[in-house]
Design goal:
Strand content: under 5%
Number of strands: 2
Number of helices: 6
Largest sheet: 2 strands, antiparallel
Mean pLDDT: 85
Shape: globular
Number of domains: 1
Radius of gyration: 15 Å
Strand order of the largest sheet: 1-2
Length: about 110
């Protein structure tokens, strides 16, 4: 798993080490579970008939911040992530929504 992160251009070994230290469950848990641990999963905010926005909250703040920064840098060098980012921008998504989507793709 360490090798998979390091194969992406733009990720420093220090960032990989911090991610592996703060999220040792990467590769063991499912995509949805690891996204929730990292604080990148939408959490329902419903009550009765009200169905509100599903903001991203909770989780571990340290890895989430590292993933946001790394995702932005990797999107410059990886053509697949860059295309994904441009698709979301063309669809009119907010900057934070794009940032969250890129971070989840990395996980």
């Amino acid at each position: 798993l360490d090798r998979a992160f390091r194969s992406l251009k733009g990720i420093a070994s220090r960032s990989v080490a911090r991610l592996m230290a703060e999220l040792p469950e990467i590769g063991i848990l499912s995509n949805k579970a690891i996204a929730k641990l990292a604080g990148l999963a939408p959490i329902a905010n419903d009550s009765g008939k009200r169905s509100g926005r599903r903001p991203v909250r909770g989780g571990r703040a340290g890895p989430r911040g590292v993933l946001f920064l790394v995702a932005r840098i990797v999107a410059k060098y990886d053509p697949h992530l860059a295309a994904f980012q441009h698709r979301l921008q063309a669809a009119g998504k907010e900057k934070m929504v794009i940032r969250i989507a890129l971070a989840r793709k990395l996980l």
